[in-house]
Amino acid sequence: MNKTQSKTDWDRVKALKEGDKIPYEPADGPNDAEATRAWFAQADLVRMDKVVRRGRRGPQKAPTKKLVSLRLSPEVIDHFKATGPGWQTRIDSTLLKSIKKRA
After folding, report:
1. Element at 65 (helix H, strand E)
2. Which of 16, 35, 85, 90 lies at a CB distance of 3.0 to 4.6 Å from 28, suitable for a disulfide?
3. d(CA 38, CA 21)
4. What pTM does this model have?
5. Which DSSP category does 34 fall into?
6. What SS3 class is residue 53?
7. How far apart are CA 27 and CA 35, in angstroms?
């Protein structure tokens, strides 16, 4: 294995105590709360090596769906959940097909 020389001042790091501010010179350092919030707002959220959120969501190209509370029988929920992720979209698709058949 190829080892590289660490440039970290470990004596200085070990001397820090819990809650100490991190000594950092630039204005956008870790002690700058506003810069930290901006950095996290633009950061990618990764779960199990997959990007699940990248920054903030942009404007919608198509009209968005409406959020509603809907009571469905347990059999309906179990059926659609058993088919995996995207089950709510599949319920929406099934309801749309039913509407189009009646039209």
Report:
1. none
2. 35
3. 19
4. 0.42
5. H
6. strand
7. 8
